[in-house]
């Protein structure tokens, strides 16, 4: 076949994958296309039964009981939060005050969105990262050489009245249920920030940062991972850290999230009605490296679809993020350069974002 004939075929193939993995699966699929096959060192190691071959691979994260955080045991809970952020970069929150119906309804309406015809979902496709609503696939479909087994819907959520009119109008109850969810996760985030600042023992300035975060950015990201015929060949999401301050993750009952702990990939057990909370790059910078933004990835399976909803929170997009002056002294020099959202956008527009490369690019290497 001549080069002039090959080019249109390659473009057609690429266009097919740009429509998302749900679209591929809906049209019938019994093997993973080459576009989704990861290099061997990056693949999970499964047995034929969809079980990881390594024993004891599941990890129980520290559990933060919100009711105790608001009660007489607050100081003990704050110590647990500090230890979790230093050791794991993750913890799970229970008794968080969000009504069960709010989280259940959010998962259900998101499932319905991804069950809509492709033509309806594709109305929200955009390569503009600042679009108020963006439907897409993989991790960064414009840069990824190998695609991930994931479709997503990203919704800017703060200030909510500014963005709500752009959100999907189908299913008919999507906006109302998602808006309730966004408001309640924002409230949970604000209470979590107060606890984080208190755990860092920074009075005064912690309150100023908390107020700034209260007016900061919020993005709700719905992830859809359809069943995969060969889950051992691909990933739902590649190893990455979260750009932002804190992420609050709601999962259904299907496991898939893994974190890198002591140089091993370990699976996080989903706890019904809980939230997984993880430290983002901005909190690692703000805490001057005390709290860790930890690498995580997502596995897929051959039998069950998986839905998760991440609420990502940080400072306003125009803010400069830097180590807290209260955590800097002659023995603790700043470990990170000041950064902002524009710097991050410039970084990901020029390369494939993966691992913790962006955060590494902001580190200051002091001469000893």
Describe the overall structure:
- The chain has helices at residues 3-18, 21-26, 66-69, 74-87, 100-115, 118-121, 160-163, 174-199, 205-214, 281-286, 341-350, 357-361, and strands at 58-59, 63-65, 90-94, 133-137, 151-156, 217-225, 237-240, 246-251, 257-261, 264-268, 275-279, 296-298, 306-314.
- A hairpin with a 2-residue loop joins strand 9 and strand 10.
- It is of the alpha+beta class and 368 residues long.
- The strands form 2 sheets. Strands 2-3-11-8-13-6-5-4 form an 8-stranded mixed sheet.
- It has 12 helices and 13 strands.
What's the short story on this structure?
α4 packs across α8 (174-199), α5 packs across α8 and α8 packs antiparallel against α9. Helix content is 33%, strand content 18%.
Tell how many strands the DSSP assignment holds: 13
Count of helical regions:
12
Would you tell me the overall average pLDDT? 88
What form results from the Cα inertia axes? globular
Please give the alpha-carbon distance between the first and last residues: 60 Å
- Main sheet characteristics: 8 strands, mixed
SSE string, helix = H, strand = E? HHEEHHEHHEEHHHEEEEEEHEEHH
Strand content: 15-25%
**Nearest-angstrom radius of gyration?**
21 Å
Please state the structural category. alpha+beta
Helix coverage percent of residues? 25-40%
Q: Stretches where pLDDT falls below 50 for ≥5 residues? A: 2-10
Strand order within the widest beta sheet = 2-3-11-8-13-6-5-4
């Amino acid at each position: 076949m001549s080069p002039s004939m090959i080019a249109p075929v390659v473009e057609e193939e690429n266009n097919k994958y740009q429509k998302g993995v749900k679209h591929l699966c809906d049209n019938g699929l019994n093997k993973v296309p080459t576009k989704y096959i990861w290099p061997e060192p990056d693949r999970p190691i499964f047995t034929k039964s969809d079980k990881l071959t390594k024993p004891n691979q599941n990890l129980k994260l520290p559990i933060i009981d919100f009711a105790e955080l608001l009660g007489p045991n607050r100081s003990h809970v704050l110590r647990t939060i500090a230890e979790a952020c230093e050791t794991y970069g993750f913890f799970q929150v229970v008794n968080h005050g969000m009504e069960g119906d709010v989280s259940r309804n959010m998962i259900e309406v998101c499932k319905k969105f991804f069950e809509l015809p492709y033509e309806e979902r594709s109305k929200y496709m955009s390569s503009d990262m600042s679009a108020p609503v963006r439907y897409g696939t993989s991790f960064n479909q414009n840069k990824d050489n190998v695609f991930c087994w994931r479709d997503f819907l990203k919704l800017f959520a703060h200030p909510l009245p500014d963005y709500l009119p752009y959100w999907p109008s189908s299913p008919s109850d999507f906006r109302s249920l998602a808006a309730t969810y966004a408001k309640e996760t924002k409230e949970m985030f604000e209470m979590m920030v107060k606890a984080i600042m208190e755990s860092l023992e920074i009075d005064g300035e912690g309150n100023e940062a908390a107020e700034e975060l209260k007016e900061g950015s919020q993005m709700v990201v719905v992830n859809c991972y359809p069943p995969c015929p060969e889950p051992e060949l691909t990933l739902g999401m590649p190893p990455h850290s979260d750009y932002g301050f804190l992420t609050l993750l709601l999962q259904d009952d299907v496991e898939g999230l893994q974190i890198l702990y002591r140089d091993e990939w370990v699976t996080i057990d989903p706890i019904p009605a809980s939230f997984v909370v993880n430290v983002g790059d901005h909190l690692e910078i703000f805490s001057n490296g005390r709290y860790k933004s930890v690498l995580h990835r997502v596995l897929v399976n051959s039998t069950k679809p998986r839905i998760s909803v991440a609420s990502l929170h940080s400072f306003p997009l125009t803010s400069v993020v830097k180590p807290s002056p209260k955590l800097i002294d002659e023995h603790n020099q700043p470990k990170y350069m000041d950064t902002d959202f524009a710097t991050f956008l410039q970084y990901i527009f020029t390369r494939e974002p993966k691992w913790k490369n962006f955060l590494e690019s902001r580190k200051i290497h002091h001469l000893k």
